[in-house]
Amino acid sequence: MSQEDSAASNKMYISYNNIHKLCQQVAKTIMERGERPDVIIAITGGGMIPARIIRSFLKSKGQKNIPIQAIGLSLYEDLGLDNQIETIGKEVIRTQWLDFGALDKHFDSLIGKRILIVDEVDDTRTTLHYALTELQKEVREQQVKLNRLNEDTTFSIFVLHNKDKPKKVELPQDLFDHGRYLAAVTVPDKWLCYPWEAIDIEEHTQLAIEQGNN
């Protein structure tokens, strides 16, 4: 097998159709439990499209659309162009964060809310751990500041794909115990090719179909 063939065999191509279905599947689980989130926090850029799609499936008659907030976290040092495989960074860097002043003014803050954090993939778990830990910390700080210590804020996590591999960090066990870690599907430790990264979307979709990821 050539080096090019080997690299290709280590890739999983995911279609927009597949992503749509995965979001629908997880949203159904959330709604059946009666745990519709009050706010969705998307980790840019991979979490933006899944966040927008799942919101459509979380609509509830007589209720407003769930607001989507975005946070930017940088972990990958190399974006993985052509045949290069993504290199995982060691440090999470904030590139965009929540404006808690604006949230307090327009949405009564995150305190006491059900919050769904969305990303496309749980790889090393580093980014998800950072996002959850920092958001929990800032909500606690807001609770102290506003003297609202008796209100429970519930965090859940939704990813399209969980890579079946050892993680560099662990998430709180209660997320798993209470079904608040929502991975639509667990996949082998391969390079996941998402449609929003594709140069030729028709070729990408055809490859996804051939792999059964449509």
UniProtKB/TrEMBL annotation:
It comes from the Eukaryota. InterPro entries: PRTase-like, PRTase_dom. Keywords: Glycosyltransferase, Transferase. Pfam families: Pribosyltran. Residues 16-144 form the Phosphoribosyltransferase domain. GO terms for molecular function: hypoxanthine phosphoribosyltransferase activity. Signal peptide: none annotated. GO terms for cellular component: cytoplasm. GO terms for biological process: GMP salvage; hypoxanthine metabolic process; IMP salvage; XMP salvage. This is Xanthine phosphoribosyltransferase 1. The gene is XPT1.
